[in-house]
Amino acid sequence: MNLDKVLIVGCGNMGGAMLQGWLAGGVAPGRITVADPRMAEAPAGVMLVREVPVADFDVVLLGVKPQLLDAVAPQVAPAIGQGTILLSILAGVELATLATRFPDAKGIVRVMPNLAAAIGRSPLALSGQGLDQAGRDAVTALLEPLGTPEWLASEDLFDAVTALAGCGPAFVYRYIDALAAGATALGVPRDQAQRLALATAEGSALLAASSEHGPGELARRVASPGGSTQAGLDVLDADQALVRLVEAAMTAAERRSAEMGRDARGG
Ligand SMILES: NC(=O)C1=CN([C@@H]2O[C@H](COP(=O)(O)OP(=O)(O)OC[C@H]3O[C@@H](n4cnc5c(N)ncnc54)[C@H](O)[C@@H]3O)[C@@H](O)[C@H]2O)C=CC1
Ligand SMILES: O=C(O)[C@@H]1CCC=N1
């Protein structure tokens, strides 16, 4: 299946990261049209329009805020022909909700990426309807320049995966800031603490990604028995303090996604 012509509707932080990732990954700019009333300018070779054109696209990527679904749907519907696959990155908004707004789409796929799509390093969780295996393979191939697409066993996992893959970078950035703030409190100059915290996070993530060992074992290898790392881990692990805090944050994020999905259902 040839997914040649792509329309991005709403090219802000996340749509823009996907556009950047596709171009960096070698997708020809002439294949992509962007419809966005506020985007200042598009990268060279990408067509930027202010209103959704009436034309046949192989793929339409919906990249607006979930709350705008009903305002945007009537404008987008004419760009969706019988052969068009709709991709939606809207947090919370379910396949069934999208199907009522875009009944003509050949297939509908929810995608949960994150901002690392811009550098080809995003997880991309997928759940879809209406596509055969060839259609799913074509979607997977289209998304591969952005990172690591993987299909979920069930759409029911989508809000949980949104909390992890979609929101996750913000949680990781907070942790990096917390490392820097911790060092600053111990007297390290703020800018130096920030540099060291970022380099520590970057090196640790790269090592974990290339290691045969999981994060638990890697942490064990950092911590000499009776040493300083163990003293710090004892604080994070006491009463599962860190795990409980992160679980609470992810539960809040998951609930908010589900709430946005319910709001969109009613529209
Ligand atoms: N920001 C992130 O890290 C992630 C965001 N998402 C999802 O991506 C979607 C967009 O989020 P952001 O990029 O953060 O928001 P954003 O506000 O940065 O981007 C939204 C874009 O939609 C455009 N827009 C507004 N009205 C429009 C219309 N009528 N037609 C076409 N374009 C229109 C805006 O000009 C803007 O460029 C949301 O549904 C969100 O749930 C999903 C995963 C991660
Ligand atoms: O905050 C949000 O609602 C979106 C979904 C995942 C990341 N950003």
UniProtKB/TrEMBL annotation:
Keyword Membrane: no
Keyword ATP-binding attached: no
A cellular component term, taken from the record's GO annotations: cytoplasm
Pfam families in the record: F420_oxidored, P5CR_dimer
Superkingdom in the source lineage: Bacteria
EC numbers for this chain: 1.5.1.2
Protein's GO biological process: L-proline biosynthetic process
Compartmental location: Cytoplasm
NCBIfam families reported for this sequence: proC
PANTHER family named among the record's database cross-references: PYRROLINE-5-CARBOXYLATE REDUCTASE, PYRROLINE-5-CARBOXYLATE REDUCTASE 3
Family: Belongs to the pyrroline-5-carboxylate reductase family.
Protein name: Pyrroline-5-carboxylate reductase
Originating species: Novosphingobium chloroacetimidivorans
Lineage: Bacteria, Pseudomonadati, Pseudomonadota, Alphaproteobacteria, Sphingomonadales
Gene this protein is translated from: proC
